Amino acid sequence: MDADFEDLSHDVELISRLKQLYQATLRFEDRIDLANDPAIYDKLSNSDKIKYNLLMSYSLNSMFWMYLRTEGIDPTKHQIKNENDRLKKSMERAKQINDKNTLMPRVDKNAAQRFIRNSLWEPKVNEKDNNENK
Length: 134
Known about the structure:
Structural class: mainly alpha
Number of helices: 6
């Protein structure tokens, strides 16, 4: 009788986990639909579009990686590993470009014009001083 109860408790736990997986899948599907909304994508800047595309590619590859694991296939020996490595390099490159653009010092044109204008300033000569020098 105890063996039947243990089997039943394992079944209940399995059903509970399957329900959780199903609910997570539905939430994920809703987020993917939102992420694929062209109205949102069109409003993004080029930098944000790059980040978005890299994130979507990496997410899809991660999902495929998990699928391979569930099928008992070692993903480290699959082509997906090379694709993930390529995406990681692309993400690093995008970060370098973004950092370069945001951290690079900028010239304040107005301040530079004031410096130049003030360095070229010559004092006015008083007429009194002009007459004494003659």
